[in-house]
Design goal:
The structure is a single chain. By secondary structure, this protein is of the alpha+beta class. It has helices at about 35-45, 85-95; strands at about 1-5, 50-55, 60-70. The protein has a 3-stranded antiparallel beta sheet with strand order 1-3-2, with helices on one face. The radius of gyration is 13 Å and the shape is globular.
Length: about 100
């Protein structure tokens, strides 16, 4: 399972603060929550779980982490349009 924190796609954060969507803030969204990320995973038919007690080490006030399963046990993708974690980030932002 891949782990995702909401700061990875937060346009209010800098790359140094944990944003992983490159330098372009237009490709990120403003203050996403774990529930919103989970809702997107459900829409994309990706199995996920939300861990409320987890937090990003540099921002302990923003709680929650989403664990997403991109591949089945046999190695095939749950959603062929999403083959990597970076594509997953981009799809969440567009959605």
């Amino acid at each position: 399972m891949d782990s995702f924190l909401s700061c990875y796609i937060n346009s209010k954060k800098t790359v140094a603060e944990g944003r992983r969507i490159g330098l372009s803030k237009s490709k990120s969204c403003e203050n996403p929550t774990c529930a919103e990320i989970g809702y997107c995973c459900g829409y994309l038919k990706l199995p996920f779980s939300i861990e409320i007690d987890k937090a990003y080490p540099f921002d302990l006030m923003q709680r929650g982490m989403v664990r997403v399963l991109l591949k089945k046990e046999d190695g095939t993708l749950y959603n062929p349009a999403i083959s990597s974690t970076s594509k997953c980030h981009c799809v969440w932002v567009e959605w």
